[in-house]
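Deliverable D2.4 — example input (structure tokens):
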């Protein structure tokens, strides 16, 4: 099962946050499952850290590549096809980070681990509970 982590899922995994359900925790922990973290998560976390919305994420933001390597997570860069689809996805949802996440999950055929039901409107395969 190839999975893509939403930003909150990544942070909750790293923090051992109890809001991350056992099912998602099991999927991430299974070394047979390739786990992807998108470049847009780095952008999102860095932006939110800079403006004070993620003040506790300093270590992750400053050492993201090493953190991901330590977890054996794979980096998912943004390609032109991802950007194009993110801009073309239908619906009123305007969050560019969410639109990119949906586009990447669709194009790369990844299962999205997210608690955000907005992705169900984008035709993304989402797992959580």
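Example output (designed residues):
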């Amino acid at each position: 099962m190839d999975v893509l982590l939403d930003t909150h899922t990544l942070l909750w995994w790293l923090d051992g946050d109890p809001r991350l359900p056992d099912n998602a925790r099991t999927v991430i922990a299974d070394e047979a499952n390739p786990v992807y973290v998108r470049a847009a998560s780095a952008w999102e976390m860095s932006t939110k850290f800079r403006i004070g919305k993620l003040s506790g994420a300093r270590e992750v933001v400053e050492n993201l590549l090493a953190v991901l390597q330590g977890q054996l997570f794979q980096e998912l860069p943004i390609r032109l096809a991802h950007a194009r689809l993110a801009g073309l996805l239908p619906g009123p949802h305007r969050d560019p980070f969410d639109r990119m996440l949906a586009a990447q999950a669709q194009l790369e055929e990844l299962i999205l681990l997210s608690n955000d039901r907005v992705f169900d409107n984008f035709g993304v395969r989402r797992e959580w509970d």
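The chain has one domain: 3-127.
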